[in-house]
Here is the input.
Amino acid sequence: MTTVGSTGASTYEAVNIFFDRAADRLKLDDGERELLRRPWRELQVAVPVRMDDGRIEVFTGYRVQHNGARGPYKGGVRYHPLADREEVKALASLMTWKTALVDIPFGGAKGGVQCDPHLLSEGELNRLTRRYTANIEHLLAVNRDILAPDLGTNAQTMVWMMDEYGRIHGHTPGIVTGKPIELGGSAGREAATGRGVVTVVAEVAKDAGIDLKGGGVIVQGFGNVGSWTARIADEMGCNVVGVSDIQGGSYRSDGIDMKQLLRHKDETGTVTGLPGADSVSNEELLEQPCDFLIPAAIDGVIHAENAPRIKAKMVIEAANHPVIPEADRILNDRGIKILPDILVNAGGVIVSYFEWSQNLYQAHWKEDRVTTELKKIMTRAYRKVSETAEREAITYRDAAFLIGVGSVAHVARMRGFI
Ligand code: GLU
Here is the structure.
């Protein structure tokens, strides 16, 4: 079981601390709470893969459909050594609150295969993806459950999933989102989460009177979300002062030259060791001074031990669940505001919604349209969160959960589940 922080709570229990606070405020009774907290369906599958050396290795895969009150289940599939049942359940529940908060017509789901994709060849990944898809296929449909990329998966993984699903059901592009554009993907999907993150940074900076060119932005993680966040933040005139990837980070208090950084990354394969910048570890990077600290890698990176040393004015959660509840409390007590994951990283699933709709009616939107509509939804959701936080005198996270959980509870009652 994945545990985070000194409490030893699983990620699922940790996320439910936030859920429970919303349920208390909404005065949900015990039965309603249980209905909304518990995943509606959990599937565990064995995923046997013929490895390149001839051996068979059997991986474990999951698909958790957390809540379908608001529409078809929607959520990514993660390939990661820590993607166990509790982790996938937690991430599935975050999808439920996320899609409800930004008001797109989906429920929440998540999938995972417990593996280290960096240790697998292209052929092994292809075979693993096809077997996983074939083994969960009976739970999927364009109006039932739709897959997407997450940590360790990408557009190529989505093509293999679509292809495998299509062998059984016929060509069905809408069964996965995050596909390459040539195969039914949407313009702007790859950059979508990063663009959404930067939209939230710009809005909250305006409200808080923080100059984007001032104390700067630190982005931890340089995968899909982190790298697009850093690039788009730079394009929008933010002063990006720190970045990192698995190998370590680079920090420069008067700003990193993004072109130089991208060249360096191309040449060396990493963002650490950038000439003219200080090389720092991932842990050190999180503790450097900045206005906006953006964890964009994995969960649990800000915990009780390092939370007292965070020097940012605000934490912007681009990753899912990067701040554990104990650290959440410490940062709140220290007056460091946290913009929560279910708001900040919703750009990915919002453009997935655009992609899915385009697939259903065989349309192609231009990138401008995607960007405009994405910004509209992100800004509306941010406004709702900040107004609710102010009106109820609660944190942004509590406000986001209040809106998300409240909306699912409302719809569940209308449908007669409760
Ligand atoms: N994996 C992304 C997330 O956590 C995107 C999910 C999707 O597009 O369905 O939000």
